[in-house]
Structure formats: structure tokens, C-alpha cells
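User: Please run a holo structure prediction.
Assistant: Happy to. Please share the sequence and the ligand.
User: Here you go; the ligand is fe (ii) ion.
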Amino acid sequence: MKNRELFDAYAADIVGHELFLEGKKVFSHGSISIHDHSIAVAELSYSMIENSRGIDKRCVVRAALLHDFFLYEWHVPGLRYILHGWVHPAIAARKAREVFGISDREYSCIKTHMWPWTLFSFPRCREGWVISLADKIIAVKETLFRRGTRHELQDPGGFLREPERDR
Ligand SMILES: [Fe+2]
Ligand SMILES: [Fe+2]
């Protein structure tokens, strides 16, 4: 990333918000938190387009940071776990709009980031395609290597449980 200052300027109010920091308590892939996953997706998304013209960079950073802003633990047996892939984009988009007053384009990027999982809900703009691609790249990396900082908030026996596959 060449222009860290611009990225930080777009991200500042989100990464400092207490509800975004709640993402440290929720697992993404392996032992990596939603908080760290979201920042990784935002950094990669921004790196992919920072030299491009005609793309809303602020939208890319903010929608990428909030693309998984669903704020619930999904590694629990049952319907929530099964349906998570389909339902969490719309939940994240709604919560991001409530908390951060995001733009319609940002809302659309978040709601469609899981395509092709969500068959007819596909990205409608370049920003959305970038975030969807970056999310998949980061997810594969996290699933394969499972490296990440384990936050003290994620201690087993606390609010969260370890994902099944990490036991
Ligand atoms: Fe997601
Ligand atoms: Fe994600």
C-alpha cells in the first residue's frame, strides 16, 4: 500500500468505533477474528485499486471494513451456521447503515460480497467486485494458514467458544 494516510483517513471513524472493535470477539476463519479479517480485506482491496481512476476509493475502504459487520458468533451448531453464508451480507449491510450511515453504493458492496454464494445478489459496481475478490483471497489465506493474532478477548471459556475445527 502506497498511500497509508489516505487509507487511514477513510477508515478512521470505523476502526476506532466500539462496535467495530467488538469484531475482535468474533471468529472469521480459524483463529482469526472478524476484526482482523475485515482490516486485511480492506487493506488488500485498497492496494488493488489505489492507482486506479474512476473508482470510489473511500467506498472500497469503508465497505470492505464493514463487509462482515454482522456482530454475532456464527460457529454454533444449527440453522444460523448453515445459513450464515447467505444471510450475513444483508445483516452486515443493515447494521453498517444503522451505525455508520453508509452510502447506497457501500451498502450494495456489502450486501453482494458473498457472490456467487448469493446467486442473484451480485456486485453492481467495480468497488463491489474488488471487495468480493479480496474477501475470497483473504479467506483462502486464512483458511490455509490460520495465522493471526489471538486476542485476549477470544480466550476459550470466555464469551466465545473455539471453532470446532480448532479443538
Ligand atoms: Fe462475509
Ligand atoms: Fe469476509
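The CA atoms of residues 32 and 148 lie 5 Å apart.
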